[in-house]
Amino acid sequence: MSIQINYKNIDLKKPSTNLVLFVDENFNINGLKKHITSSEFSYVSDLLKNSDLKKNLLFFEVNSKKTIFLVSIKKDLKTSDIENLGAKFHGYINYDKKNDYLLNSDTINSKIENFVGHFLHGLKLKSYEFNIYKSKKSKRLISINVTGNKNKTSVQNQLRFKALEEGTFFARDLVSEPGNILHPDEYAKRLSSLKKHGLKINIYDEKKLKKLGMNALLGVGQGSIRGTYLVTMEWNGLKNNSKPLAFVGKGVCFDTGGISLKPAKFMEDMTYDMAGSAAVVGLMKNLALRKAKINAVGVVGLVENMPGGNAQRPGDIVKSYSGKTIEILNTDAEGRLVLADALTFTEKKFKPRFMVDLATLTGAIIVSLGSEYAGLFSNDDKLSKQLLDVGEKVDEKLWRMPLHKNFDKLINSKNADMQNINYVGGAGSTTAAQFLQRFILNKTPWAHLDIAGMAFSKYGGALNSGGATGYGVRLLNQLIEEHYE
User: Fold this and answer.
1) Is 150 one of the annotated active-site residues of the chain?
2) Which of 269, 345, 365, 411 is least surrounded, with the fewest CB atoms within 10 Å of its CB?
3) 188: part of which helix (H) or strand (E)?
């Protein structure tokens, strides 16, 4: 199914036009008299008497070719509530099986800016499907025509929502690809193609990484026949030398655990262990598409964690890009090794205003927060508050978790500067974040988002139908729009 949205005026009283109309929370339809025929008004009024008005969407088939949808606008709606309404309407479209709809913006009585844009944004996000490997695909085309003189969505805002959808969908596509297709070599090629959108792309291959001394990153990938890469994506929307905002992502394209092999059950889900990098990539594509007035850089470490004759062993010691040494006690604690080198490199090369990293880093965060919140760890209260606030607005929620110097002793090593796991047990997510903090060398404001419970949904959520969620793209875009642009 694909959805096409058009903005044009059409006669609302045509007998074959499926109408989407907005009413108050009590489903008072007196204001709709000029938008529907008198017979339709009487028919819907009678049916409403026996309808469940606690719902926020109701629909009435007034004839075999026409359905009238009533969307209830409750008081104190947030923009995320409007997007969820649009997503819910998508479910009605699936049920209704009709292909043409007319949304009347004149019936909207709300002070929220871009109401129509948010409603359609939710609908579009919910419509996403990953079906490129299915031999039979749905050819259904849904056309939604937006009419009315009130609550118009400007062309600029239409483009803004479209860019955000394309960035989110690109992130979802990357996460959804199987490991035999999206290995690090292919991933690096796809990132190179983003140059056409105005992003400056630099790809550091194994030869360059060895020269730089990125042995923490390289060690993770040495058991794979695929290459290991660090890729930087720069967007210079201000055309000046102001410090960029930096976003860093873990890109483990498939994670077997290496020599510390994972159990076979559910290992197929480890294709999404690169979801942190996908969020960064989707964000950068979005910024380029909407010509964001900001300087930003995205940095991703791309690697495959495989067992093999040349694989990293438990007990190995590597020297990171920072110069600090790491004892590898568990090869399945590999994401923090990828991020360690990427964070230090990003801080040293780009000297950013702040750094936010995203990673499906620990199963422990799922134990803590389930699939409702991502874990937030940070050395900066201001950045943390900004992230928490925008997360609530776009319904990509965060919960701040502790960092404290007392956790450091749990990752101190007898044989190196540190070890990559807390072998005592407990506080798995916190000690992983504490590990990462050691690679922030110049006190740059930094936040680590552990998105292991949010990147992939077996059963679907408010704005996705199951599978990759694209979590992080909308969150970070909102952060930029609200506080830095």
Assistant:
1) no
2) 269
3) helix 184-192
Considering 336, 397, 438, 474, which one is annotated as catalytic? 336
Query: Is 115 a residue whose pLDDT tops 80?
Result: yes
Look up residue 385 and give its amino acid. Answer: K
User: Does the annotation count 55 as an active-site position?
Assistant: no
The CATH number of 2-153, from 3.40.220.10, 3.30.70.870, 3.30.70.1350, 1.10.287.70, is 3.40.220.10
DSSP conformation class of 154: P
Confidence (pLDDT) at 241: 85
The DSSP line for 252-286 is EEEE--TTSPPPSTTGGGGGGGGHHHHHHHHHHHH
Catalytic, out of 66, 152, 262, 400: 262
Q: What local confidence, expressed as pLDDT, does residue 162 receive?
A: 97
Of 53, 95, 50, nearest in space to 70 by CA: 53
Q: What is the pTM of this model?
A: 0.96
Residue range 311-338: average pLDDT?
98
CB neighbours (10 Å) of residue 27? 17
pLDDT at 15 > cutoff 70: no
Q: Which CATH class is domain 160-483?
A: alpha beta
Structure confidence by residue, pLDDT tens digits, 197-220: 999 999 999 999 999 999 999 999
SS (H, E, C) 79-98: HHHHHHHHHHHHHHHHHHCC
Of 3-7, 60-64, 92-96, 337-341, where does the model show the most confidence? Answer: 337-341
Domain ranges of the chain: 2-153, 160-483
Burial class (CB in 10 A: 0-12, 13-18, 19+), 300: buried
